[in-house]
Amino acid sequence: MSGNTRILMNATLAHEIVGHYEASIADRAFPLYGLPPEVIKRNYALNEAQASIRAARFAPEIHSTERYALLRDAMLRLRNADLRVRDVKGELFIDQR
């Protein structure tokens, strides 16, 4: 089962808005175009993990089980790209809103 199938509607919206949109307007999204495939794979995983972690930490009015599902999603995405959160934590925009 992929991470996306475990995420409910409110958490999905939080992932997109609090995760991707807010990171993008803060200019903290990872680039995905015009790069070598291995960098694109890494950056894609970082973008998705960052969005899920941001949503879990900062989204208002989502249930604790949704927050947990978002965090699991983030870890799965990193693991699938052979990354560990402790190794990339400093690169992620996850400490502020």
Summarize the SSE layout with pairings.
Elements: H1 9-25, H2 37-58, H3 64-80, H4 85-88
Give me a quick take on this structure:
This protein has helices at 9-25, 37-58, 64-80, 85-88.
Structure, explained:
With 97 residues, this protein is an all-alpha fold. The chain has helices at residues 9-25, 37-58, 64-80, 85-88. The longest helix is centred in the middle third of the chain and has 22 residues, at 37-58.
Task: List descriptors.
97 residues, mainly alpha, 4 helices
Distance between the termini: 30 Å
Q: How many individual β-strands?
A: 0
Strand content range: under 5%
- Overall geometry: globular
Number of domains: 1
Q: What structural category characterises the helix and strand content?
A: mainly alpha
- Please provide the ordered H/E string of secondary-structure elements: HHHH
Helix content: 55-70%
* Number of DSSP helical runs: 4
Taking all Cα atoms into account, the compactness measure Rg is 13 Å
What does the largest sheet look like? none
Mean pLDDT across every amino acid position: 93
Poorly predicted segments:
none
